[in-house]
Amino acid sequence: MLTIDQACDRAQTIVAHARTAGADAADAVFAADASLDVSVRLGKLEDVGRSEGSDLGLRVFVGRRSASVSTSDLSDDALRTLVDRAVAMAREAPEDEWAGLAPADRLMHGAPPLLDLDDQMTGAAPPTPQELRDLALAAEDAARAVPGVTNSEGGGASAGRSVWALATSTGFAGSYATTSYGVSASVLAGEGGGMQRDYAHHAARRREHLADPAAIGREAGARATARVGPGKLASGPMPVVFDPRVGASLLGHLTGAIGGAAIARRTSFLLEALGTRILPATLSVRDDPHRPHGLRSRPFDGEGLAVSPTAIVEDGMLETWLLDSAAARQLGLEPTGHAARGIGGAPGVTTGNLYLDGGRVPVETLLAEVGDGVYVTELIGQGVNGVTGDYSRGAAGFRIVGGELAGPVAEFTVAGNLQDMFLNMTAANDLVFRYGVNVPTLRIDGMTVAGG
């Protein structure tokens, strides 16, 4: 795999070629990755997969017209053809008054922050297939050893390294590398048509931070056995408690509603919410792209702008939209450093390590205050309307009876409106930074539940 300097040189070279070929402006991304995945099932090796690849994406501007192209063929002839094709396409494209590169005076310059995203920079050797197999076996063995587990979908372990570079004709050039490690297990409990499946997984940037695979397996087994013999849930209004594993999706709906494209097109249920209260005053939503070895940390955004920790919601008040340059120009605002760039197409928006902060209630107290309700551990379907905020999703989980978790339930629907749900949210104090988006246990009062 290329070094980060070589990757940066590749991106800069293609931008220079585009300018020579007639583009008024251009940016390019170069991505290379290598990964190794091992899966086991019922104690035996099932598959070993290794993949390596490199891709380059080029975006060119001719006046207010633009075009994007990408390729995995990095030969000189292929790249010359790519540049010529991109410039020709841009000349024929419709004009877009908002398109363009990020403002040159906003580009990041100087040394990037040290985020400790690349394990190999510290001298760590990539794991061997045997080592990954042992991790996968340990996870599956522990899951299968949980009383009540009757079958296995397998255990897995993976390791990978990626290099990413961005260059623009306005003077930005940057690159960085990340490593990733993962362990998972998925098992079934019960018999016949009553079988229930669940899983557990963990991912980390550094191998030494990867969770004990046996603990991952035990978590998967415990989750599966707890779901055996689900009952039906009565319909009606009731408090709904979201397990952190599924509660994180609520932040996804929030960030989707405050992304620049949705605001510019006026297709967001939070269109008029900037500067107003959207969460209880005790809660905040924070984005930290500088979290050391974070799963979504990065030194700069997809347009070359510096990124920094941001309070998206502070003490319940919505403080900012998430804007790339095109949306910022359309709205008469400044880009916020949240641009996301893939190999093909124009930038979108994303966040770094996103989390909900401010929960102060112990989980036991939060449940006790519910009395009778439902604890959701799985969400099914995509029944969310980003324009109106209407929310309706299939779910499974556990009854809450007298403030304590009771038997499993399945085949019910939880519904409400996201604006009301956000305002009626109570957060527990069990926030753990384990994923790219993290929330504590969340209770939302006043939701509508439709039992099966």
UniProtKB/TrEMBL annotation:
First and last residue of the signal peptide: none
Domain Metalloprotease TldD/E N-terminal: 26-90
Span of domain Metalloprotease TldD/E C-terminal: 235-451
Matching SUPFAM superfamilies: Putative modulator of DNA gyrase, PmbA/TldD
Residues of the Metalloprotease TldD/E central domain: 126-227
Family annotation (InterPro entries): Metalloprtase-TldD/E_C, Metalloprtase-TldD/E_cen_dom, Metalloprtase-TldD/E_N, PmbA, TldD/PmbA_N, TldD/PmbA_sf
Membership in a protein family: Belongs to the peptidase U62 family.
Listed name of the protein: Metallopeptidase TldD-related protein
